[in-house]
């Protein structure tokens, strides 16, 4: 520490570039500071540092991180503690640009595997970003010394030592993560696709906030026909609604909770923190939300299970377009989800193309089958489960035609679910639609594509330029990838990881031999072995701002790269 103070005293008042001298390792009384990368300008990306506490000094009982779910839970908890203490010890921006900031990527409502914090038998390590302070472009050495010694030491000692934390709270957090993983595995064993616990709070605070609604929210209660009980390792017996495999329809009047339930199920692919309200809303981890996406590029996707006989003989077995329509984009989104792997599709009529979802009897009578290239989803959804084992949960408020193909119908009434499958089938028998099924005898083929390396061009101006901009945009060379329609992408850290994953895939696994699904599967095998750090240009030092993305969103980003080329 003394050496660090001496350097800061010597460079005080000098040009900002003198901060580069700080790169290196510094030993404090009870932790080690690594300054891995020093920013070159007060407006540039902040300096990357790591603080490491030896395992015996940190003092965390091994049982708190003995399994992968517990380890992820403990790492998530500790990153949040660091973030809380940083706000206590630091006063925000204090100078030019990012001066004075001290940040850690601690996340939002989801518990995600992150690179911001690492715990092992040997040490606990937090990876932070620091805005080294400046006045204009002159070094503020005294403030930097305060930040890197006093403030940082206070944060470390208050958050990374077990004896300074609430032991009961720590245990409760990691036990929740363990229980969530148990439910996730239990879904497969019981042939369920989703579980929503009694007492869950599904509505959110607002359209701009993912926090739970306070006061007016109706706690969820499972209807008798779908109630299941699970004996969790820590929490004991919990009751909730278990949605079985097959085709499930969610119906009800407007503003009664249909889309709110679907949104909770959609986000149930992730675990949530205590107090979120959705802690025990758990969905198959490979579930994919499907929607129409007008204008997206599609590269050689086989959409023939849904669309055939396009005008002018346009190919739909290897369909490409620079500007997809609602129906072709929704068909492509489904086929891409099947290509990467999924056991559950989630759809809401509000974000679907009407002509893709249904073609009623009157329209069938007016427009002959040979003149209509689209086979509507209502005629394929049952075959999708029968042939591919892929279930569907669908919100539908405007068409009863889906009563004929639904295995389960849930009606939302005042945010309370009711099983109305029998009544729906009765109505289907009493009031037949008169429409003719158009789906054929089988769903159709799912074809795998091989990404070609020449479709990935990360250079701009002669230099590699790969970056993430917030949650929904990746810059890859000269191309901007729009991820705004990937509704299960929830954290900017995931987007940052995906950006570097694309570069890593293009250099190592997109070799003209691996299919997209094979390449991504091999990548995740490597991540499982070496950690998410492996995709970082800072591998071995400070890849501290990644959150684990799902393979489905990685594939979604690949498919939305406008320079993508496949065989």
UniProtKB/TrEMBL annotation:
Residues of the MRB1590-like C-terminal domain: 465-566
Cleavable signal peptide: none
Pfam families: ABC_ATPase, ABC_N, MRB1590_C
Domain ATPase of the ABC class C-terminal: 168-449
InterPro entries recorded: ABC_ATPase_C, ABC_ATPase_put, ABC_N, MRB1590-like_C, P-loop_NTPase
PANTHER family: ATPASE (PTHR38149:SF1)
Protein's name according to its UniProt entry: Predicted ATPase
Lineage start: Bacteria, Bacillati, Bacillota, Clostridia, Eubacteriales
